[in-house]
Amino acid sequence: MLSTEMQFYLNKVVDEYELIQFLSKSLDVRCETLNYPDSQAEAFVMINDYDIGFSMDITISYTKGVSLGKDFLWLAKLLARHYQTLVATDLPEGHPDKMNPYCWCVAEPNGYLVEMLEDLSDVEDRQGLLLNSDSKKLLTTVGKLA
User: How many domains does the chain have?
Assistant: First the structure.
């Protein structure tokens, strides 16, 4: 079956087991990772940690038959509030910079959504997401997603 994904970058590393429990409860879908397998899981969460910038990359994959009932912006805001950190994700559909791979939507712990550009000043051999704080501005188009 084809799968659907949501990707988030957290500005800090959080406990993997607690994260899986939080995602499972918030999405009402059983989640698993390589370290915490669940034979009845409906979603797989891949986690990568980095040394710079947004240090935790979370990708949630689930089959198209699974209905989360929540969108990625809702989950980004929930993660930001719960972990009191910035959470970067894709820009919403309809945003003028949606096709720009260097422009990100960032959820803040206070519930605001902002847009920021990726810092490309040192891209050689870099892993992780580094955003330019000088590019921060309120998200211009959120429609019904936020």
Answer: 1
Condensed to tens digits (0 to 9), the pLDDT of residues 77-131 reads: 999 999 999 999 999 988 888 899 999 999 999 999 999 999 988 766 667 899 9
Q: Which residue range(s) make up the domain with 53?
A: 3-70
- Residues sharing a CB contact under 8 Å with residue 100, sequence separation 6 or more, in sequence order: 91
In a domain, 128, yes or no: no
What's this model's pTM, rounded to 2 decimal places? Answer: 0.89
**Looking at the chain, which runs of residues are DSSP E strands?**
3-10, 31-32, 43-49, 56-63, 87-89, 103-107, 113-118, 131-138
Q: How far apart are CA 62 and CA 45, in angstroms?
A: 9
The helix (run of H) or strand (run of E) holding residue 72 is helix 72-83
Give a yes or no: residue 108 inside a domain: no
